[in-house]
Amino acid sequence: MFNRNRFLRRVAAIASISLVAGCSLLSDGDPDDQGPIVVGTTSVPSTLDPAGAWDGSWELYRNIFQTLLAYPNGATTPQPDAAQSCSFTDSTSRTYRCKLRSGLKFADGDPLTAEAVRHSIDRIRTIDAPGGPAGLLGSLDRVETTGDSEIVFHLNQSDATFPFVLATPAMSIVDPDDYPADSLRKDTEVHGSGPYKLQSFEEDDKAVLVRNDNYRGFAKRENDAVTIRYFKDSGGMVKALRDKQIDVTYRGLAADDILALQEHDSEDLQLVDGAGTDISYLVFNPKDPWAKQPAVRKAVAQIVDRGAIAHKVYKDTVDPLYSMVPKGLTGHATGFFDDYGDPSVPKARKILTDAGITQPVPLTLWYTTDRYGSETALMFQELKRQLDGSGLFTVTLKSRPWKSYVVGYQKGEYPVFGRGWFPDFPDADNFIAPFVGEHNALGTPYPAKEITGQLLPHSRAESNRAETVKDMEAAQQHLVNDARLIPLWQGRQFVAADDDISGGEQALDPSTIMMMWTLHRKTSW
């Protein structure tokens, strides 16, 4: 019968439980004689330049670039990778010093020096690309280098989360000779220093990765080559898995396909099911005459039935979420359930009538057609059914492909729109800070002065993240009170693979990014 591996991993708590049936693996040959491991995903890179992407492009970056810090298998806090050591050198978490490993080189043989690190970080802020990761560096004042191997980051405020920021693929180190200081690189060439080098890239089709012999870091490569194939939907990806055209699937498995894989009566496939921290949520645009009204937003929050979405649309492959901070992270709360309880049309009607709104509210809800899985359209149809069914709203649905969708919400074109969030790093701060402030990741200004001016700065001064719970809970309550952002569900991570593939259980780092180097073929049992 179907061989199902269940891998439960808590990102904030140090826990990793893997239930794997079978005997110990013995290696008696070269698994790469069978060619590269082929991984399928629906998450297509938006750009190959790390200074331009704050999205799923990071999946590729993690494997072809290096960062100063990253996550070895089993780690939940950043550890040195390109760096030999990193630490705060003051008691206020405002000066962070890193020393590079010796002998670092890019894949083409150019030396990787402290100046390359400074160049890589500075260009992110200089370019400040729309949809890029410059927002992650809000606490950085300047970067200083000493010789070829030492980098000092001077922060403009205390920020104990800064090591987590440096561990994101956004901070990938690039070669100054190949990446302009003031503009994004547009071609499909990549010069990194990661475990693999990018041999070729065909947009919307595949990325061919081969072993980088110049790599110096913690990654222990279990294979010499990986090909990543990009699919438009889950159905095509799973068919390719069943037809032995790919070995592993990651990102984008639809609920029906997950259920079918779970029930598949065969010994040639396996499914790794892991706790995730990706979330789905609604964003209300304060420029819209209806969405800007607190009563309208709170009435929507009162009607939304997360349980129905999780069960009817996602077949219980996701969990209802009642806070922007997901379960499993220190500081998680359940404010939307505590304040609103179960879905209630009478309560929602009272919220509106108390604000003088007695006619059905017209709302246009936007979603992307090709980013968060094939169930997205079904989820928005369910939201429309719930809101229209209350008699309090008349909902119009509209959609666009991701590339044009991003442009639209950054220009403030959508009254209400759906977003997903995969964590930059496993800390509650990363589920609050990116969404607030005048310049946030959503393109909709959200001042939230108590959060940005008091709670986040206070929590970032605390190096012991367990001591930030009160600040994080208070920030979440502000989000509940405003209802500018309404969380819907928290995902789980599923990796389906041929039964001949090992390493899927170890492949996901705490930000749920796949580390391709853990994958390998079983040569014998």
Automatic annotation (TrEMBL):
Gene3D superfamilies found in the cross-reference section: Dipeptide-binding Protein, Domain 3, Periplasmic binding protein-like II
Superkingdom as given in the UniProt entry: Bacteria
Keywords: Signal, Transport
Stated name of the protein: Peptide/nickel transport system substrate-binding protein
Domain Solute-binding protein family: 77-440
Any GO BP annotation: peptide transport
Main subcellular location: other
GO MF annotations in UniProt: peptide transmembrane transporter activity
Signal sequence range: 1-26
Record bears the keyword Signal: yes
UniProt subcellular location: Cell envelope
Family under the similarity heading: Belongs to the bacterial solute-binding protein 5 family.
GO CC annotation terms, alphabetical: ATP-binding cassette (ABC) transporter complex; cell envelope; periplasmic space
